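Practice problem: predict the structure.
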Amino acid sequence: NGTAAATSTNNGIVNLNFPEYGVNAMTFWGNDLYVGGNFTTARTSNSVVTANNIAKWDGIAWSALGSGSATATSTNNGVSDVVNALAAGSGELYVGGYFLTVNNSSGAVPATMIAKWNGTTWNTLGTGLNGNVRALVASGNQLIAGGDFTVSGDGSKVNSRFGIYNVVANPLSVVAGSNAAALHLYPNPASGQATLTGAPRAAAVQVFDVLGRRVLTTKADATGTAQLTLPAALPAGVYVVRAGELSVRLVRE
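Answer:
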């Protein structure tokens, strides 16, 4: 907070929307401290920075990740929702949590639950994961992730809440779980209708666009199946379907 006396409003992390939440993870990368959680603002006595769920402290001031030379706003930096885990390795900062997009100054990039920051730009990591990432450990060329996920974001690799990324080749290697739950969506890509299976019984099923906006809500039946009727005006692109703590990526043709 500079030379002023520290108060509850002139230093640290502030979250105006969710005061019951705060910082979930911290790690050093180089000489800087990175802080992740559920917050919207980082401040000192001399400055207030919009920082969406992740921020950097260089020993003097806070800064956002992704806004470049532009002033940080609610849409041009950070990630779209909660950060739970941070790990630094192989020249990059890895971020895990419960988010759907990362925000560069040029716009939002789909990144389901896991992403990487190279000091300048956010990037995806493989096809992401279908559930909350709660822990990350970087070791050599490997990034180990743990959490609530059961399958990779595109549904191609089964996980049992544990996966290993080769951060050089980028795909996700997996430790298979024979009883792992997973959402399945077909057809995918879809144009008008799609069928979702594997959802918790009677769970709410929601479809979100890359900005985190809900575009469709329905409900799974007693067998965990839901019929998704996509709105006719829904643009072609990538969407995320959530049911409970599970999610799967949907491509609208």
